[in-house]
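Marked as duplicate of an earlier ticket. Keeping the data here for the record.
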Amino acid sequence: MSPPEQKNKISLLVQLLGDRDEFVRSRVAEELLRAGEDAIPFLEIAARGEDLPARSQAEAIIGALRPQGLREKFRRLSAMARENKLDLEEGILLIAEYGHPDVDTRDVRATLDGFAQELRPRLDPRFSPRQTVETLTNYFFREKGFSGNEADYFNPENSYFNRVLSRRTGIPITLSALCIVVARRLGLPVVGVGMPAHFIAKYESPREDIYFDPFNKGRVLTKADCADIVARFGFKFEERLLNKTPHREILLRILHNLIMIYNRNNKPERAKELTSYSNILLNLPETWNYSKPV
């Protein structure tokens, strides 16, 4: 079926959502579910309509379709990971789409582009790695007001990137991700460092590596500082803990943070859905219960 024919079929099906015949409504729902994400724009129109039965059914079908679409997107993301081409920004926006289905990822990307545009003229190629890091962190954590959410650390909104941008607060891993994705636009070698229990960022340079802590207003860290942080959380420090964390591992850690939070908040269905996405990235069966911390 050609795309125009498919759209016409979907449009006709949506018009039957409010049919009085329960059998017709059931068949229509099956066909719309089979149509997949292509049906969502038409269903969203019906969900805003005045026909209450049709509106209710449209909302229910959208609720069933979104997880299917997200699973397919996570499968594509996992394929990219196997080829070492995984885009961190794509992944964190996909997680945001789970938490906020109405998120406009174009707006999020435009905001990130704007940050990079403001930062670019402030960065001098003659800067030392430390001067570059301080310029980046002063911009985000002083001028723009981003900060670690110590008061409400386990709020799931801290893990959804669109909300981190709008609320100007987050947890170590999402604030580090902010620095990473904006630095990429500027050609800066900023990467994530997944220390146990506390994620930080690193400016990788042949001259010297600069470690910094986005959760604590971008504070520059020595290796001794990093060792102290690791020890404070009850872990033994090893040099390998300061290695660059691959993008897939960053996304898994964000997902596992959310799984832990939703289990803690007695929302097992959300935890189960997120576990299925985590399993896809790990190339595991989607229903397998993976509980090992990343």
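See parent ticket for discussion. The chain has two domains: 3-68, 88-248.
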